[in-house]
Structure formats: C-alpha cells, structure tokens
Amino acid sequence: MEDYILNGKAFGSVASRFLKSGGDPLVYRPFEGADGKPYIIQMNKKGEYVPVLATNADATLRHEEWLQIDQAVQQVARERLRGVADLQSRGLTYNIPNGMGKTVLLTQKQSDVNDAVTSMNGLRQSPNDRPVYDSDYLPLPITHADFSFSSREVLVSRNGGMPLDTSMIQEKTRKVAERVEKMLLGSVTFPTYGGGTIYGYTNFTSVLTQNIDNPSDSAWVATTLLETILNMIQQAQDAHYYGPYMLYYAPNWNKYMGEDFKTYSDKSVRQRLSEIPNISGIEQWDYMSNYDLILVQMTSNIVREVIGMDFITLQWETQGGMEIHFKIMCIMVPQVRADYNGNTGIVYGSV
C-alpha cells in the first residue's frame, strides 16, 4: 500500500497524519511512553515542545532508542558540514517556518541608489531616485536518504540490552550531509524549479574567476600562491566587496600549505596567508578538486544557507509492522547572491 497526497487530499494513514498536522514532520516520530502508549512531540500554545498522546499512530521505538538515532545523526552531520557550518557559525542563515509547506523562496535584488550629499544648511537637493527591484526564486528541495530495520532487530537489541547498531544511520546521514555541502560548493545541481535555480560557489553565473598556477610545476613558488590570492581579493574589491573573506582550498594543497613560505623562514605558507588583511579563515574543503581555491565574502548579501528543516529522522511501518522504515532528511539550500548589476563577492580560482 502506498501513502500519498494528491490535490490536497491524503490517501493512506501515514499521509493522513502528515496532512492533518500541517506538514509537521514530528508526526513521523512516535515513541512508546513508560505507560506503553504512543506519544509524539508537539508544540503547545506557549511555544514549548511537549509529549502528546498519539491516537492515530503506532509507536515501535522507545524514547531512548530515538535518542540513540538522533545522537548518531547529529554527530555525523556536524563532522561533514564544513562550508555550511561556517555560514551557521556566522549567523548567515535564513530559517523558514514549516519548510515542508513551501516549495520556493521569493527574494528581491535591489539596484543601488545615488550617494548622499553634504551641505551647510541642508537645503541642497539630493538626487531623488527610486531603486529598481528584480525578483528571484529559490527552490526548496528535500535532501534525504532511507534505511530500515526489521522489527526483530529492534526486539533483539531491546531484549539483549544492546543499543541499536547505528552504523547504517551514520552512513546515510553522511550521504545527506555531503550532498548539502556539495550544493553549497556547486558540484551537484538540482533542476530548475518554480522559475528558480540553486547555485553554489563554483557554478554561480555571476562568480568571478581566477586562473591558478599549478604548484606541481617546477617554476612554482609559494609567493606565486600569495600573489594569486591577492589578485582574487582585488577582484572582489573591484566589485565593491571588501570582506571579511573565507578562503577554501582543495585537499591537494595540503602538502604545500605546511611548507616554509620562504627559504629558512619561520612561517609556513598557511601562516603567511592567514596574515592577509580581511581573511577571517583559511580552511580545507574535502569536496573541492584539483588545486581549486574559493574566496567568499562572508556577509548575508553574498551567501546564506536557507533552512526549511534541519536534519531530522522520520519513521513509519510496512508489512504489518514487521519492517520499520526511516528517512533522514533536511531542507537546507544555499543562496549565493549578486547585486542588481550582477556583482558578487565570490571568486573561484582553478588551474
């Protein structure tokens, strides 16, 4: 039997629960309480999450078993989210309540306006202009991966006093996190939807580009890399974006980052690069290839992570309850941005 939603109507018990909840994914997380009854977590009128008796859901897992699953998911997600974590740590996020109920985000780009004027009496007329706006649409797809346990596996774990084997959960979470990261990088794409396209750092149509000298060439020296990065910064500043910047480099650069910047110097290449003004951080990004470099101004008018739903694990049953299915999912989409004139503070360097 399949559960689905068509033209606003639900078909099947799982789909019915989901539609009645207004798209709240917590209805897919029932747990068995100490009294043996099924509960789900819901928000009350005070904005607090409290357990509520679930009259239309069967609970297979206990609360502590859900904790094991959630801990495994969150641990791996933190390990694999490098670029997204940098955005989150700087507050460069945009949260959408009930992201499951929305498929696109509408934003606007605004043209610049004329400069202010200075006068002694305030009577001088400044240019009276209006900004021009242009609309952008950002798709909000779900990134997800599935796995399952048999009910017997759960019973064996419970009766034997052994925790559930979370290795599959961790591996599936890793796949979801990696895809979220690669969307930000721009190495994976999603089809245009609702009039909008998801772009990352490397495939953004307005990204500035820079040629990188191959460090494996015999003529290459560390000062060549310094000059290249300074040129990338100049490109961003020529577009009127002055930092602060993050510099990401491909893993192939590691063997060079630890070398002496100059012969007999007391600084490594990495240390010298970190002294460049307005660079707030230099990080290896595992998913970058060759000798790529990415310079990004870390401000919300250049990039932010749109979050319609953080990592969450959902559960439902089939085969009369003999098969317990899980889906790790999130709605996390990068929004890289340019101004009305197509200028941006992202510079992509490649060989």
Give an overview of the whole structure.
The protein is of the alpha+beta class and 351 residues long. Among the domains are: 1-59, no CATH class; 208-303 and 342-350, hypothetical protein PF0899 fold. It is 25% helix and 28% strand. It has eight helices and 16 strands. The protein has a five-stranded mixed sheet with strand order 10-16-13-11-12. A four-stranded mixed sheet has the order 6-14-15-9. Residues 1-8 and 10-14 have low confidence and may be disordered.
Query: Helical segment tally?
Result: 8
How would you sum up the major sheet?
5 strands, mixed
Fraction in helix: 25-40%
How would you name the CATH homologous superfamily of one domain? hypothetical protein PF0899 domain
User: Average pLDDT across residues?
Assistant: 84
In spatial order, strands of the major sheet run 10-16-13-11-12
- CATH topology term of one domain: hypothetical protein PF0899 fold
Please report the distance between the alpha carbons of the first and last residues: 52 Å
Strand content: 25-35%
The structure class reads alpha+beta
Number of strands: 16
Could you say what the CATH architecture of one domain is?
Answer: 2-Layer Sandwich
Quickly name the level 1 CATH class of one domain.
Alpha Beta
Note the run of SSEs as H and E: EEHEEEHHEEEEHHEHEHHEEEEE
Rounded to an integer in angstroms, the radius of gyration calculated over CA atoms is 25 Å
Low-confidence stretches: 1-8, 10-14
The rough form would be described as globular
